[in-house]
Amino acid sequence: MARPGYALVSVSARDANGFVHHYDDIEAPLGSLREAIAILQLNSAATDAAHRGGASA
Questions:
Q1: 57 by DSSP, 3-state: which?
Q2: How many Å apart are CA 50 and CA 55, to the nearest integer?
Q3: pLDDT at 13
């Protein structure tokens, strides 16, 4: 169980070759977690636009 103001985060990522990378659980402050997810979402939209030939976000 995470401390107050923190969350336990499980991270798995699939790379371009289809390999899945699993990371140990991370206890992260909720503010940092929200910021990290926002950054990932922005980068994902920019990457998708670049692959389609559109403008980045």
A1: coil
A2: 7
A3: 93
Exposed e or buried b per residue across 2-25, where buried means at least 16 C-beta atoms within 10 angstroms of its C-beta: eeeebeebeeeeeeeeeeeeeeee
Tokens (6 digits) for 28: 């992260």
Give the whole-angstrom CA distance, residue 49 versus residue 40: 14
Q: Does the predicted TM-score (pTM) go above 0.70?
A: no
Q: What is the mean pLDDT of residues 32-41?
A: 93
Residue 43, H or E segment? helix 30-52
54 in helix, strand or coil? Answer: coil
| Residue tagged 């939209």 (tokens) | 45
Give 6's strand partners.
Answer: 29
